[in-house]
Amino acid sequence: MKNNFIDSIKIYCKSGDGGKGCIHFHKKKYIKRGIPDGGSGGKGGNIIIRGNSNINTFIHLKYNKHWIAGSGNPGKKNNITGKNGKNLLIEVPIGTIIKNINDTILVEIIKNDQKKILFKGGKGGKGNIFFKNSKYRFPFYAQSGIKTTGNWIFLELKILADVGLIGFPNSGKSTLLSIMTKAKPKIGNFPFTTKIPNLGIVKMNYDTFLVADIPGIIEKASQGKGLGSTFLRHIERNLVLLFLISSEKKNNKMEYFILLNELKQFNRKLLNKKRLLVISKSDLIDNEIKKNIKNFFLKLGENIIFVSSFTKEGISQLKNKLWDLIKELRVK
After folding, report:
1. Strands 240-246 and 207-213, how do they pair?
2. CA-CA distances (angstroms) from residue 113 to 48, 54, 68, 93, 116?
3. What is the dihedral of CA 281, 282, 283, 289, to 10 degrees?
4. Residue from 172, 213, 175 nearest 196 by CA
5. DSSP H/E element including 261
6. Among 7, 72, 93, 234, which one has the highest count of C-beta atoms within 10 angstroms of its own C-beta?
7. Residues 162-199 pLDDT 10s
8. The pTM is what?
């Protein structure tokens, strides 16, 4: 199956060259050489980046990696300025970071319809009418338009979601997302069912929050094992991290420490984010086991909620708790 989710790409951009100024003389009966009236060249087109909330991947850039704006037209006689080159608009998902070849961030797109001129077009050259003065009454000179240089840039997507859903493969992340939201992620009983981040919107009265299901993270994901290293960077922009651990796994406590360690290895600052621990498939364990699990994690200072996507246990409590955390963080 073809993967249409592309969250990093390299493209070539070149703004338009400025148009040439015109050398021209308007002939007059009693002025042998004529009067200079050459107009200026048009300005080159800009390369503009714009955020678009309707796209969440760079797939539209995959087959067109060269983006070149229009050049300005030359100036004309009668002091007519050449037509400006056409601007070129590149639309990107919300959460896009754009860097140059030196890894310097040029711009971050964090809002829908946010625009930024990435590369300005060259200025048009002045025509000979602008060089006429008392000393040079008949200038045979006009400026060339300013030429621009092309640049390779790197685009990287970090999904801007309120909640990042993190857990091992088969922990029930996709199922939980489908229960909490109207998202329809691929669900299956085998590792790495989710191979791209899935997004879902949770409705809370008159407001909403966005949940991202991050593909399964396993031990050594931060070192490139499995799919986790590819998508760990998406977690960096989540307000709240939701750790989902399956109750049916005998080593569920160990999974918790592995998840913490992988985040730490990737970016230590991730451990400072607000997080909520959720034990999934709670319908498969009795109250005694729940009590033991709860006491263990409470001693570690974790907020813990038991949920079951089958019986809907804890789903409302989970949404309310997440919403309280998100409101608090949005205010900050």
Report:
1. unpaired
2. 11, 10, 21, 10, 10
3. 130
4. 213
5. helix 252-266
6. 72
7. 898 888 877 778 888 888 887 554 444 444 444 567 78
8. 0.70
